[in-house]
Specification:
mainly alpha, 7 helices, transmembrane, membrane, transmembrane helix
């Protein structure tokens, strides 16, 4: 037994530590929800992917807009896009109009693919990885048939796809799948909002 008055006793001088357990959600390996939405916390990679995919969609619009500006001028029309250079259609004829329509449709599809990949990744859908790979392939095809300006879409799409394959995003997709399988009711806007004192207190 130690003597409390013994100066060699070092246990009395050490501060007492209170042992605590981790939060209950950590002990049960539950999903820690966002205090604002109630959904699983979104990692920074999800935000980066969302932003860069929207930048890629904007890059599609810029690339097509530059082509369109060159196509409306007869002197620059023959070199306005690689597809136009390959086909060499007479300006104003049916083939030229058909190719312009095809380029517009391609640009719309590519922009939509980029937007869908980023938005659905933000919503926690695992299949957004496949959508991202499709978006990268489509932006590459757009660059091939349009011009090097298509890299304004291809590079951000590639960055966004890399973000979706990070380990943290794998865990985020798994958490969102478990969240959906639990049957949580989505947020519903109230039908009526009272301002001021409630009717029962008037």
């Amino acid at each position: 037994m130690t003597n409390p008055a013994d100066p060699r006793d070092t246990t009395a001088s050490r501060p007492k530590q209170i042992e605590t357990l981790p939060p209950l959600q950590v002990l049960r390996a539950d999903i820690v929800p966002s205090p604002r939405t109630g959904e699983p916390l979104r990692p920074a990679a999800a935000l980066v992917a969302l932003v860069v995919f929207q930048v890629a969609a904007a890059g599609v619009a810029v690339a097509y807009g530059l082509h369109w500006w060159a196509a409306v001028h007869p002197e620059t029309y023959p070199a306005s896009a690689r597809l136009i250079e390959w086909a060499a259609p007479p300006p104003g004829k049916w083939l030229a109009l058909t190719l312009e329509g095809a380029l517009a449709v391609i640009a719309a599809i590519v922009a939509a693919a980029c937007g869908v990949a980023g938005f659905q990744a933000w919503n926690g859908w695992r299949w957004s990885r496949w959508a991202a790979l499709v978006a990268v392939a489509l932006t590459g095809a757009l660059t091939a048939v349009l011009s090097w300006w298509g890299l304004l879409a291809a590079v951000p799409a590639l960055v966004g796809t890399a973000c979706l394959f990070l380990p943290r995003m794998t865990r985020f997709f798994r958490e969102f799948a478990a969240f959906r399988s639990a049957g949580h009711a989505p947020y519903r806007r109230p039908e009526r909002i009272f301002y001021g004192r409630l009717p029962r207190f008037r």
